[in-house]
Amino acid sequence: MASHRRPKQPSRARVTVLTTAAAAAVVLSANAANAAPGEKLNKDEVKAKVDKLYEEAEQATEKLDGAKDKQQKLQKEISTIQDNVARGQEDLNKLRDSLGSLATAQYRSGGIDPSVQLFLSSDPDDYLDKASTLDQLSGQQVEALKKIQDKQRELAQERAEATDKLKDLSATRTELAKQKSAVQSKLADAQKLLNTLTAKEKAALDAEQAQAASRASSRVNLGNTGSASGRAGAAFSAAQSVIGSPYVYGASGPSSFDCSGLTSWAYAQAGVTIPRTSEAQANAGTRIYSQSDLKVGDLVIFYGDFHHVGLYAGNGQVLHAPHTGAVVRYEAIGDMTFEFGVRI
């Protein structure tokens, strides 16, 4: 008879080794998902890739902001047109009632004029174009018919305009969804890369960024920020008051911001309305092409497509909302591709 021996249980030490190996395999597989086969990106390589993704996300964010701004304007314009159409329809109804009163008066005095009778059952345009009809109408009736005709044409134009804007609004909403998806995709990819770093590597990156921000702040304090004056100075002071606030794409204050959200909010606190997006802000004032001519509070535009903006802080530094995962802070202008300044 065969022997049925109980299998030998692995030792506690062996279980520990197996568990550790399994955990390591999970970490390695996660890292491999974000790098080429057999490749483990180091901290600096991850940072470079993440910075690139953040830049691409910000490009999409500015397009998203532009679509949101356009949507809000279209909604206001459509609402205004619809209100005008409603009031115009009321006016048209009153004009028709007035002409109907004329017809009633004619009937009581001996019968309705044939031309008026025809009008009441059809479109007045057809009769105003016929001289023979005009000859049969009184001056008062002709004036009433012309007013009705003008009001009908006006309403037709406004309804056509509203239809066009509603189509534009629909396209804008589609673009809004597209850009929002693009931003979220870039940020998700960046987070996957950051997740490949060890806790020690993440801490080292955070420390590097903190040191860079501290150095930039020190340079600002050494510079002559007292040159800020007027509304530019007030805007800069407003931006300083929210240093440390988180970057959130699509946000324009008061507790979180994206780059153009910060600058438009800061100037609004100074009583100045500037466009919402960095691209539009690039055309909002006088361009300053030499960094040496910049004054505190001037807008500073970065990159060839103008997708980033900050406020000049003096001594070669800019105050801005950098990207997701960062906060409103000072940074050296030289860390980004400077295009020009804009004096509001």
Q: What would you say this structure looks like, in words?
A:
With 344 residues, the chain is α+β, with helices and mostly antiparallel strands. The protein is 61% helix and 8% strand. The chain has ten helices and six strands, in the order H-H-H-H-H-H-H-H-H-H-E-E-E-E-E-E. It has helices at residues 12-32, 43-108, 114-120, 125-128, 131-136, 139-194, 199-222, 230-240, 259-269, 278-281; strands at 286-288, 299-302, 308-314, 317-320, 329-332, 338-343. The protein has a six-stranded antiparallel sheet with strand order 1-6-2-3-4-5. Strand 2 and strand 3 (308-314) form a beta hairpin. Helix 2 (43-108) runs antiparallel to helix 6 and helix 8 (230-240) packs across helix 9. It is elongated, with a radius of gyration of 34 Å. The protein starts with 11 loop residues before the first helix and ends with a strand. The model is unreliable at 1-34 (pLDDT under 50).
What is the fold's blueprint, element by element?
Elements (H helix, E strand, L loop, with lengths): L11 H21 L10 H66 L5 H7 L4 H4 L2 H6 L2 H56 L4 H24 L7 H11 L18 H11 L8 H4 L4 E3 L10 E4 L5 E7 L2 E4 L8 E4 L5 E6 L1
Antiparallel strand pairs: 1-6, 2-3, 2-6, 3-4, 4-5
Helix pairs in contact: 2-6, 8-9
